[in-house]
Structure formats: structure tokens, C-alpha cells
Amino acid sequence: MPQTAGTLDSQQKTTSRRPAGTLYRGNTGMWSWVLHRITGVAIFFFLLVHILDTALVRLSPEAYNAVISQYQTPIMGLGEVALVGAIVFHAFNGLRIILIDFWNAKYQRVLFYVVIGLWVVTMLGFAPRHLINVFSH
């Protein structure tokens, strides 16, 4: 039985539709989630390295001093700015998540922009002072 064009169009429309509400599709909620996970993983790996290099003190104080002297470079100073940025974003976004859980989810987008604003203000206060110290030595 031949299908008419109208029937074919309606079949294509129903088979190509995705269920509503299952994908973020690039909204602020998705970016908040992605950035929260990335910063959390970065902080975890920093803590792992920090524990390992601190453990060198017990094994060999000379090895510990050698590792610490490698950390006092401008590249590591930039890494410290990135680390502080990750910690600050993760902390502010965690507070945003707590507010959404206990308050009202309809303000999620506004709170995300508040987090970004607070992060920018905090980093503008920290980064210049830290980088002056890093590059003046």
C-alpha cells in the first residue's frame, strides 16, 4: 500500500523527536555541571600530588627539597593561579548547588551568573598580587 506524503512526514516527525527534558543542550545547568566536575577532578589530582610530594620528607629530605625547588618557577606560579581559580569556582558553585537544593531551582540561571561574577571578582583580587610575587623573584 503506497504511503502518501502527509503520512511519511508525520512518521518522520515522530521518529526523529527526542524526549523533552533529557538533554541539557548547552544551557547554564550543563556548563555549571561540567565546570564543577572538571574543577573537582583537578583539585583531587592536586591533593594527590601534594600528599605524595609531602611524603618525600620522610623518605629523603634532599629529594623533598629538590621537588620543592622545582615548584618555585613562573610556570608553577601560573599553575597556582589555575588551582586557586578551580578551588574558588568549585566552592562558589557548591554553595549555589546547596541553595538550589534547599531553596528554589527556578533561580538556577541567575545564581550561576552570580557564581561567575563572584569568581571573576575574587580572581581579579588574587591573580595580580600573586603574579607580581611570582615574577618579581
From TrEMBL:
Segments of skewed composition (Polar residues): 1-14
Keywords assigned by UniProt, alphabetized: Heme, Iron, Membrane, Metal-binding, Transmembrane, Transmembrane helix
Subcellular compartments: Membrane
Principal location listed in the UniProt entry: membrane
Record's keyword annotation contains Iron: yes
A single GO molecular function term of this UniProt record: metal ion binding
Highest taxon of the lineage: Bacteria
Listed cofactors: heme
InterPro entries: SdhC_prok (IPR039023), SQR/QFR_C/D (IPR034804), Succ_DH_cytb556 (IPR014314), SuccDH_FuR_B_TM-su (IPR000701)
Listed GO biological process terms: tricarboxylic acid cycle
Residues spanning the membrane: 34-52, 81-103, 110-127
Cellular component GO terms held in the UniProt record: membrane
SUPFAM superfamilies linked to this entry: Fumarate reductase respiratory complex transmembrane subunits
Residue numbers spanned by region Disordered: 1-21
Assigned protein family: Belongs to the cytochrome b560 family.
Full protein name: Succinate dehydrogenase, cytochrome b556 subunit
